Hints:
By secondary structure, the protein is an alpha+beta fold. The protein has helices at about 35-45, 50-65, 65-85; strands at about 5-10, 15-20, 25-30, 30-35, 90. The strands form two sheets. A three-stranded antiparallel beta sheet has the order 2-3-4, with helices on one face. It has a two-stranded antiparallel ribbon with strand order 1-5. The longest helix has 17 residues, at about 65-85.
Amino acid sequence: MKDASVPCLPRGVRLHYDKVRQTHVLLGPERALILDDISHVILSELDGTRSVGAICATLAERYAAPVEQITTDTLALLTDLAHKRLLDHV
């Protein structure tokens, strides 16, 4: 996963709000990952058209945070999810 990669959720994977646990989860084939608030914010920005860099710039502006730190954290999350086959990228 790189700054220029365009991430998207693959077929069969979706964001979901679990009413019982009152938290957001990422549902995939035969698995569910409970998301913290930061992971949910990042994954909510995935639209399949914007690059990681563009998403990080948006988040940095929205939260008045250093884009370098947001990029580092975002790339770590997205790379981990890609290795678990819960995320695709071009």
